[in-house]
Amino acid sequence: MNFEIFKEKTEISAFSASLRNAGKKIAFVPTMGSLHRGHLSLIETAKKYVDDVIVSIFINPIQFAEGEDYEEYPRTIEQDKILLEEFNKQHDGIIKALYTPDATEMFSEDFMTNILVLEYSDILCGKLRPGHFEGVATIVLKLFNQIKPNYAIFGEKDFQQLFIIKKMCEDLDIDIEIIPSPIIREESGLAMSSRNQYLSEEQQEQAAEIFRMLSSLRYQISRSGISTEVLMWGQEYLLENDFTEVEYIEVREEETLFLAEQGELTTKCRIMVAAKLGETRLIDNMLVQNKSIQDHAE
Ligand code: AMP
Question: How far is the CA of 155 from the centre of ligand 1 (A)?
Answer without folding.
Answer: 5
